[in-house]
């Protein structure tokens, strides 16, 4: 675990029902869902995922939103979903892997307990095979994943209060490290 941006811990969110106790970001396969659910269990709170929220509102799967309306429209839906979730959820929240690409969404995260779950290509491939229906990784997934991480790593790091490495660690270990990073061990 490293602390790339201590200033990320300095604001507040004016949100009835929120803000979340933990916000998880990171690329596909980082373990946001797996670890997020474990962390929610450890904190005896609930888990929420903005990808699921977007699909529920749109009434269709994310790959179809990309095909029908394009990525810019998806990022707008995502910004709205993140805003709603930050205002209405005080448990553990996972964002979509690319949420941090949108400047407005990054702005919404200021001051919140955001954890970047980091993963390298090797473990990401082992975990998700990079063959699931992921709109941005459809062609040459390994190279696309590398290029995507080159662009995204600085942004994940910028908005995160801490980075938790996940390579070679069990989800339970990672969940523990998340609590540690946010000083929530005895919460
Ligand atoms: N630390 C870990 N070690 C080994 N396997 C893991 C770890 N974390 C998650 N996994 C496995 O990797 C796969 C992907 O994990 P998960 O769905 O939690 O990732 P995600 O970040 O939510 O991905 P997505 O962006 O697609 O929602 C799952 O099969 C999960 O069991
Ligand atoms: O990495 C990304 O850009 C994405 C990740 C998923 O969580 C979804 O939000 C969507 O498939 C886009
Ligand atoms: Mg997930």
TrEMBL record:
Protein name, per record: Shikimate kinase
Listed pathway(s): Metabolic intermediate biosynthesis; chorismate biosynthesis; chorismate from D-erythrose 4-phosphate and phosphoenolpyruvate: step 5/7
Organism listed in the record: Actinacidiphila acididurans
Record keyword Metal-binding present: yes
Record's keyword annotation contains Transmembrane helix: no
EC number assigned by the record: 2.7.1.71
Enzyme class: transferase
Binding site for substrate: 51, 75, 97, 152
Main location: cytoplasm
Residues that hold ATP according to the record: 29-34, 134, 169
